[in-house]
Specification:
Layout: H1 5-14, E1 24-27, E2 30-32, H2 35-50
Antiparallel strand pairs: 1-2
Amino acid sequence: MNKSIRTIWRWTNQKKAEGFPQPIKLSAGTTVLDFEELLRWEEKKKTSTLV
């Protein structure tokens, strides 16, 4: 994935990226994203734009 961390969190907060994986809150102050889900989302976006 060739995006900055800032861009990824912006997409999460704005929810503008359709189907973008939602963050997982582990504890107060610790939120993560599933990297495999991000890669699947990115691949899906690539293939949908090629059609």
